[in-house]
Amino acid sequence: MAAPHLSPAHGEEVDENDHEAVRAGIRESIGDPSVDITIKNVSAWEVNSAVAPRYAHGRVFCVGDAVHQNPPTNGLGLNAAIADSFNLCWKLRLVLDGLAGPGLLDTYEAERQPVGRQTVDRAFRSMLDLMGIPQALGFADGQSAEEQWHLLETLHDETPEAEKRRAALAAATAAIHGQANAHGVELGYRYRTGATVPDHTPEPVQDRDPELYYRATTWPGARLPHAWLENGRRRCSTLDVTGQGRFVLLTGPGGERWHEAAREAALLTGLHVTVRGIGTRGGLRDPYGTWAALREVEASGAVLVRPDGHVAWRAADSGHAGELPQVMATVLATPPHHPGGEPPPTARPAP
Ligand SMILES: Cc1cc2nc3c(=O)[nH]c(=O)nc-3n(C[C@H](O)[C@H](O)[C@H](O)COP(=O)(O)OP(=O)(O)OC[C@H]3O[C@@H](n4cnc5c(N)ncnc54)[C@H](O)[C@@H]3O)c2cc1C
């Protein structure tokens, strides 16, 4: 894919049907007129920086570029679109199946709109940072390709001017760290309000730049951290044993009470909760103690993971097992259970 940048402010425009002009533009950009170029499709786009204040209205739910548009810097656009869909789909399915209340769908916008805002802001700042590179090199509007090649060829000259440009280039290169390595933006967002139940512990602080660095945590609302485990002789990740349309409860040695709690939760809500033991006899193995170091609860505690891989709730130890049914009812926004009232739909595992 070639993505030549044009400047409409300086009269540069693209005619999507004029493939010869597009070929010429690509050849000029790569500086090699001999390269054979086959054009499959031309699609013009404009840099945008916008996020919708509302993602949903009534029965209409919007995902992707329909609600957030940003420059391609950081490569966040499609990733955010997929994460929107991932967040919405399991909620839609449970509500349509009668296993969750319509209030669960309200959490879609509450959870995803702030992420869209952060995505757009980060991408836009990264684009501005990126523009520092040509500036540092001495590029300016109106220069010919020859002038700009000359600026590149003289960059390493032993002159004060070249030295100044090299220092500016080093500073501009350092500034694009936020474009290339924004792991905190990519993985570290936490849903602070939505389909989660707080465990009343303070949100873990990030002692390094929260946009650049991802801090693994099981705090409710965060993405479940990855840890390598073993399933028999096969290596797998915590991310492999959760998701796939299910609510999964991760527990460890001493967490036997969670099995009964999951059965009670299924009786109350109609939804099956899969319990996975890590480090238990016959369960998944944690040979290097990676999960034990990340789980932030006691071995007998539990981390409840939603179908989209975000933590719905966690409990420090098995003394909280009796809370699971009500936690599931809260996450699913189901009406309070009235003993003797309408039975919930048949409990069944999600596919
Ligand atoms: C140069 C460039 C590089 C990028 N690089 C990355 C990257 O590295 N990583 C990343 O994550 N993202 C990247 N993106 C962003 C990414 O392409 C978009 O965020 C993503 O395509 C959005 O997906 P979407 O499904 O929401 O919208 P779209 O991909 O725009 O899909 C919408 C579809 O709806 C169709 N449509 C529109 N109106 C109608 C209608 N009335 N009826 C029927 N169909 C209709 C359109 O034709 C289109 O096919 C890049 C974008 C650009 C421009």
Task: Walk me through this protein's architecture.
With 351 residues, the chain is α+β, with helices and mostly antiparallel strands. It is built from 10 helices and 10 strands. It folds into 3 domains: 1-46, no CATH class; 50-180, 3-Layer(bba) Sandwich (FAD/NAD(P)-binding domain), CATH 3.50.50.60; 228-331, 3-Layer(aba) Sandwich (Glutaredoxin), CATH 3.40.30. Strand 7 (247-251), helix 8 and strand 8 (273-277) form a beta-alpha-beta unit. The longest helix has 35 residues, at 103-137. The relative contact order is 0.10. The mean pLDDT is 92. The structure holds flavin-adenine dinucleotide. Flavin-adenine dinucleotide (FAD) binds at residues 3, 45, 64-66, 72, 75-79, 81.
The succession of helices and strands, N to C, reads HEEEEHHHHHHEEEHEHEEH
Rg of Cα set: 26 Å
The count of helical stretches stands at 10
Strand order of the largest sheet: 8-7-9-10
- Low-confidence stretches at least 5 residues in length (pLDDT < 50)? none
